[in-house]
Design a protein that fits this description.
- By secondary structure, the chain is mainly beta.
- The protein has three domains: 266 residues, Sandwich (Immunoglobulin-like); 169 residues, C8orf32 fold; 208 residues, Sandwich (Jelly Rolls).
- 15% of the residues lie in helices and 40% in strands.
- The strands form eight sheets. Strands 6-5-9-3-2-11-14-13 form an eight-stranded mixed sheet.
- Strand 5 and strand 6 form a beta hairpin.
- The protein is globular and about 100 Å long.
- The termini are far apart.
């Protein structure tokens, strides 16, 4: 054997005694104990649980050397909600260029149940299997018959993949727990891989075994040895998605493979993992990327003379951006690896993310602005690899403009975006800025400004306990973008109707919006308010919050092992001037609050004061000054939001009728 594949991570081995002795976690066969068990002690909220799961991927020893994965699993259905896991969906990747597609073969699937003490086994028939086609993959699905809580489903199949350079990623973690998950890879010694374990969980077992003469290559049928590697994890908790996270693919426990090099039988070495210099060259010389970004002549007639003739200032840059934004539209496709021709987008005035933002790039370049293409990955797509270049992992594209030493990130896919603001989907921590004349570099895509949502109310409390007045709200940054998009998607009437529905203590009428179409400026919204207070005997109880920053605490897990990623900095403020009725005085004001997150990560400040005999002033401000918080912040953030919920819902001003 010529080479072993490279492990680029430190494997953490943890031998943990089994916690589920009533289940048969070490074997594929369904046991009576599997069926008799009624719960899963480590997670009593689980609706279903993998008792056993295994995968084995190897190169087919036949001539084509396809990648073959044999998969086996058995799942315990714990309650009625767990029955949803009795329908299995298997994505089968395909190539748009070659038409090749992965195949699922040799399906065997059964439902096991106890009936009058006997184990009954029911087969999944062919009529319960389905295959559907999608743009980038096919999907094979099958449904188990007559599944009830307490049953165990067992299934196995083989996947044959013609994509021999894309070794299978094994995901140890899913949205239900797993008692035992193991994966075995059998890799020829002349194949060298970067292998990465992610997710922060420890392996229970890791074993390597050398197998001689396991596969033949080339016309001489030279035999190569293989390394067979076993990875085992046990007692894997469910991965629970929660608000304010990027793709779960960034954080679940899994093993990924990236082909580094193949050594042929004649000794020739072919490298597949690029250096960044290699990747930069590939980007610059690509017919869909670099060559298109240099076609300034294709856009020479795009701008009107009134804009083109202006000096190259920030004002001109904005005029160019808004002109292209108004006249050229995104077609909803990303397609950054598809064919793209700048002339086509000029003529059609519509195109993909790559096309529409490449047009903007070329217009700026033709006007001699300092502009750079940027390759990125969306929040849903996950982080693009930084250590080993993999251009295929990028799925998004925008541009960066540099004027007077200040950088502006620009994207045309959302007409509600102001100059210098990226869509939320692109706020994925970092991206790769391309220099068409030199080396590319990493760049942060973290917004520097705060997105503000400010409420300013003026209320008059009446003797019957009711209150009325006005509310002025100011939205900037992503709060303004989101509100404008809601109106675009649902229409003004629908949004205004929703706004007019009673909030916690408030009903809104006579709604007016300013700057709706002026994305350069913040939104102004004005309401007429009716605040619901309560009068009991000679006391009036008034909650001063007409509106809430958050309706509920978004953080409810016992533990969160992945970062809290808001995408942008947030600032919320509420101020109210409350006029109390004649003949009343303030008996009680809400308790003041001043809470700060560690490391200047945020603050919540609330106070209410008697400004004069008949006026109470209320102020509340909440800031989240970081876009991303590490998991260590989670408990603090959860308590922080609990305090906010308390302030919003339980702050009462008590007014007393004078005797």
């Amino acid at each position: 054997m010529s080479k072993f594949f490279t492990l680029v991570f430190l494997l953490c081995i943890s031998f943990v005694p089994a916690q589920n002795s009533n289940y048969s976690t070490e074997e594929f066969e369904v046991s009576r104990e599997d069926l008799l068990a009624t719960n899963y002690a480590p997670d009593t909220t689980a609706h279903a649980v993998y008792i056993y799961e295994s995968g084995f991927t190897e190169f087919d020893p036949d001539e084509d050397h396809d990648l073959v994965t044999n998969y086996k699993a058995k799942i315990k259905i714990l309650d009625k909600q767990g029955i949803d896991y009795a329908t299995i969906k298997v994505p089968l990747g395909k190539s748009r260029e070659s038409g090749k597609v992965k195949e699922l073969k040799d399906l065997k699937a059964h439902t096991f149940k106890l009936v009058n003490g006997r184990i009954v086994k029911r087969k999944v028939e062919t009529s319960a299997t389905f295959e559907s086609e999608h743009k980038y993959y096919n999907e094979f699905s099958f449904a188990f018959p007559d599944v009830e809580p307490g049953d165990v489903i067992q299934f196995s199949y083989k996947i044959v993949s013609p994509f021999t350079f894309n070794f299978r990623t094994w995901e140890f973690q899913e949205d239900i727990p797993k008692m035992h998950s193991q994966f075995t890879s059998k890799i020829p010694g002349n194949y060298e891989y970067h292998t990465t374990l992610t997710g922060g969980r420890k392996l229970h077992k890791h074993e390597d075994k050398l197998i001689e003469h396991c596969i033949s290559f080339g016309i001489t049928s030279s035999m190569a040895g293989c390394v067979e590697t076993l990875y085992v994890m046990k007692d894997i908790p469910a991965f629970i998605e929660e608000d304010y996270m990027t793709s779960e693919d960034n954080y679940i426990a899994k093993i990924e493979y990236e082909l580094k090099q193949i050594t042929r039988t004649d000794g020739f070495e072919r490298k597949y993992t690029l250096t960044w210099d290699d990747a930069d060259k590939e980007i610059r010389t690509s017919s869909n990327w670099g060559k298109q970004w240099k076609r300034d002549n294709a856009v020479k007639d795009v701008l009107p003379e009134a804009i083109s003739s202006l000096p190259n200032t920030l004002e001109k840059a904005k005029k160019i951006y808004y002109f292209i934004q108004e006249n050229y539209k995104w077609n909803g496709e990303y397609d950054i690896h598809g064919d793209m021709n700048i002339k086509d987008i000029v003529d059609s005035k519509s195109g993909s993310v790559l096309a529409i933002n490449s047009l903007l790039h070329n217009v700026y370049a033709s006007e001699e602005f300092n502009v750079f293409p940027v390759l990125a990955s969306t929040r849903r797509n996950g982080f693009a690899p930084r250590v080993h270049p993999a251009v295929s992992e990028y799925n998004y594209f925008f541009i960066q403009l540099k004027i007077d030493e200040k950088e502006y990130n620009l994207d045309l896919t959302d007409e509600q975006l102001d100059f210098g603001r990226l869509p939320f989907r692109a706020l994925n921590t970092y991206a790769r800025k391309v220099n068409l004349d030199g080396s590319s570099d990493w760049m942060s895509i973290e917004p520097n400004d705060f997105s503000n949502y400010a409420f300013r109310d003026s209320l008059k409390v009446h003797e019957d306990g009711t209150a009325s007045g006005t509310s002025n709200q100011h939205l900037s940054g992503y709060h303004a973008v989101n509100f404008r998009n809601k109106i675009k998607e649902n229409g003004k009437d629908k949004i205004f109707l929703d706004l007019s529905k009673a909030q916690q203590f408030t009903r809104s009428t006579d709604i007016a919006v300013e700057n709706l179409d002026d994305v350069e400026n913040g939104l102004q919204i004005e309401y007429t308010l009716e605040n619901v207070s309560q009068k009991i005997n000679d006391l009036i109880y008034l909650n001063p919050f007409s509106f809430q920053f958050f309706e509920k605490n978004p953080f409810n897990l016992d533990e969160r092992t992945y970062p809290i990623d808001f995408g942008y900095r947030n600032a919320f403020s509420y101020s109210a001037e409350i006029h109390i009725p004649e003949g009343y005085s303030v008996k009680e004001l809400p308790e003041q609050k001043a809470i700060r997150l560690p490391g200047n990560g945020g603050a919540l400040i609330f106070n209410a004061i008697s400004f004069s005999e008949n006026v109470v002033m209320v102020q509340c401000r909440m800031t989240l000054s970081q876009t991303l918080y590490t998991p260590e912040y989670y408990d603090g953030l959860k308590k922080f939001f609990n305090e906010l919920m308390t302030v919003q819902s339980q702050s009462l001003i008590v007014l007393e009728e004078n005797s």
